């Protein structure tokens, strides 16, 4: 998902992710749910809700490098599933992580050297007791999957040569797994993971089957006394003009939102860095009052992407007995305009989310 484009990019739910397979997700992956994938040298811990202090659940991961930056760049969004925290900005956390390609290569080389060392030091008969005994879950691709044990390395102890064949117990003793940076927090629940596929919004407007929809749109504009261009101004930017587009039923912002979404009701995410967000209701404050500047470098923040209502129904767990859920109308993610990052940093940068509840949740169920 590129971070600069002429058109809005639409994120759609793709196939489910099966991390039991060899093709696991990495920080390159844009996805729904699951556990966030850490970047090399970045410690990504599970954040807590600022309101109720409960652990937050991972909602989406977006890989979005900037064309003018040498950094890999991934944004992870977390939410509180406590109903009292729904619709409140403090119940959400946005973390931005970055790394250089040299960090990726170093991590890959270190993992490769570690595997070679394990193979050289382990006795040849270590594969006799398990079909895949030499497969210890070390990632073949760059980036490790974020788990409860944040970084787990395979170490083997040297075994002095002996003429007598060792028994099975001595074989097992020659292998040991030591844990580094053990995460004290137990692994919590997670939403089912799905890949996110990306298309341009303009692809839908060019669809030959949209003529009828455009005709209905023109009829709506005549009936409500507001044009699509006027309603589109409600979508954001620094100079919104809400009074200009008051439809007869009094909710021009929501109408504009619904008409825009109707081009692709299945969209779970809209991406347009430095573009205009699509508000679902009229904001109580203007953008300068709503969105604080970057707390690290002081630069202003810019709109990057937003989560859409269709995502709500996809946020479910594999446990049928679990009642975890997140309710929202749309979540607008704002990030540092300069995407500041200190070389060698091992902590993600916290960004800002504006949460708008759904004026009529029934429309999306």
From TrEMBL:
Task: Give the source's domain of life in one word.
Answer: Eukaryota
Return any one Pfam family short name: PDCD2_C
Q: Which part of the chain is the Programmed cell death protein 2 C-terminal domain?
A: 251-356
Q: Which residues form a coiled coil?
A: none
The name this protein carries in UniProt is: Programmed cell death protein 2 C-terminal domain-containing protein
Species of origin reads Coilia grayii
List the taxonomic lineage: Eukaryota, Metazoa, Chordata, Craniata, Vertebrata
């Amino acid at each position: 998902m590129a971070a600069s484009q002429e058109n809005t990019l639409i994120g759609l739910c793709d196939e489910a992710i099966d991390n039991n397979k060899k093709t696991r997700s990495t920080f390159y992956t844009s996805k729904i749910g699951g556990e966030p994938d850490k970047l090399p040298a970045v410690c990504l811990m599970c954040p807590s809700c600022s309101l109720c202090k409960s652990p937050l659940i991972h909602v989406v991961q977006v890989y979005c490098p900037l064309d003018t930056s040498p950094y890999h760049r991934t944004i992870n969004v977390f939410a509180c599933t406590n109903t009292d925290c729904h619709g409140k900005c403090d119940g959400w956390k946005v973390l931005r992580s970055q790394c250089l390609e040299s960090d990726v290569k170093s991590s890959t080389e270190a993992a490769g050297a570690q595997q070679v060392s394990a193979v050289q030091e382990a006795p040849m008969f270590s594969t006799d007791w398990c079909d895949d005994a030499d497969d210890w879950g070390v990632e073949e691709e760059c980036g490790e999957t974020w788990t409860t044990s944040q970084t787990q390395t395979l170490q083997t102890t040297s075994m002095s040569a002996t003429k007598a064949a060792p028994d099975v117990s001595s074989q097992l003793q020659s292998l040991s797994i030591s844990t580094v940076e053990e995460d004290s927090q137990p692994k919590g629940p997670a939403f089912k993971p799905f890949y996110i596929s990306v298309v341009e919004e303009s692809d839908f407007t060019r669809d030959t089957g949209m003529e009828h929809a455009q005709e209905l749109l023109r009829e709506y504009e005549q009936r409500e006394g507001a044009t699509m261009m006027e309603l589109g101004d409600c979508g954001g930017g620094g100079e919104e003009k809400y009074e200009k587009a008051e439809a007869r039923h009094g909710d021009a912002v929501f109408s504009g939102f619904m008409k825009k979404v109707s081009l692709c009701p299945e969209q779970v995410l809209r991406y347009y860095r430095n573009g205009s967000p699509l508000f679902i209701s009229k904001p109580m404050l203007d953008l300068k009052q709503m969105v604080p500047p970057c707390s690290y470098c002081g630069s202003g923040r810019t709109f990057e992407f937003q989560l859409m209502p269709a995502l709500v129904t996809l946020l479910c767990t594999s446990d049928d007995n679990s009642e975890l859920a997140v309710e929202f109308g749309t979540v607008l993610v704002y990030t540092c305009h300069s995407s500041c990052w200190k070389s060698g940093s091992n902590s993600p940068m916290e960004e800002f989310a504006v949460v708008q509840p759904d004026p009529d949740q029934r429309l999306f169920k």
